[in-house]
Here is the input.
Amino acid sequence: MEQVLDLFRLNGRPVSCDPYGEGHINLTFLAVTDTGKRYILQRLSRAAFHDIPGLMGNVAAVTEFLAARSPDPRSSLHLIPTLDGRSFCRDSEGEFWRVYDFVEDSLCLQTPETPEDFYQSAVAFGQFQCRLRDFPAETLCETIPNFHNTPDRYRKFHLAVDADAAGRLSSVLPEVRFLLEREEKAGTLQRLREGGELPVRVTHNDTKLNNVMLDAVTRKALCVIDLDTVMPGLVAYDFGDSIRFGASTAPEDEKDLSRVEMSLDLYETYARGFIPACGGLTAAELESLPLGAWTMTLENGLRFLTDYLEGDHYYHITRPEHNLDRCRTQLKLVSDMEQKWDPMTAIIRSFQP
Ligand code: ADP
Ligand code: GN1
Ligand code: MG
Here is the structure.
């Protein structure tokens, strides 16, 4: 790691470098130098991303675009260049690495401590969406093709079920049935996208609460992070993914499903922060938000189960049934949203101009 850090233009000599954060995809480290300066060092996941130079082109362009539009240096991520002026380096084993300034005096939460925290995360993601309205979408590479194409996620799920590579299928038949019963409806957002009924915008696509930073002093929206999946997409993806993670009453990997519910209060709180901050959504986009929450939750359940069936190659896990536990919380949330569908749609309609 020291050799890798030496390839970047750091302020000072590295004195420590330790695993950091709770991301499921990249390997993340906190590096500190002898001047006290802190950095985030990341080894990018080659299992997730097949065009890392393209991905880093996106990240460099988006961070520069955002930085040019805000006077506060902490309001967007800042890449540290390598000695030869590039945004990433490749080591002798073929691994890709990058370094960011550590966003100081900030909070990154796994669950909202107060509804106001969740509201502020909604403001951050809404503003992110709004600030990228003029970003030239056609210059972005698709870092994970078909990322939120739910029918394509089902196609991969069927392959995993048929192959049963890890020999786990017989133990997850109720979950498989639950997902198959919803396959037809799960394609609705994708059909609306392909039919041109919902506009394609530049979206974040991975709007978990731990992908946003709040100011540690004011607890206000500060900075959106984890830009690896910034791509053309639907606003419903960003709204939905935040709800599935942050409006849940329990962690994503909770084993006691009786604790897992989608809080309508948190759902309303998020909508109140996100919708105005986006600055002008179409009527069809507004109408699609509850479906976004349901679809993103189901899709994540599908993806966790696919990875479990394939033998846990994609997400980091810390226990053998981790992906299955994650799948089950998502399916519980889907059921709960189905029960709460009428208030979910009524809340969004109350935001219509
Ligand atoms: P992953 O794709 O694996 O989720 P992230 O880019 O989200 O990786 O980083 C993982 C975690 O590291 C984040 O949830 C956050 O806690 C922390 N983190 C990432 N970038 C920064 C940064 N620039 N400053 C401070 N913390 C960061
Ligand atoms: C991953 O990278 P991270 O941990 O913020 C995943 C998301 C999932 C999420 C589930 C690139 O997000 O799509 O929704 O886990 N990111 C990628 O927690 O696949
Ligand atoms: Mg992340």
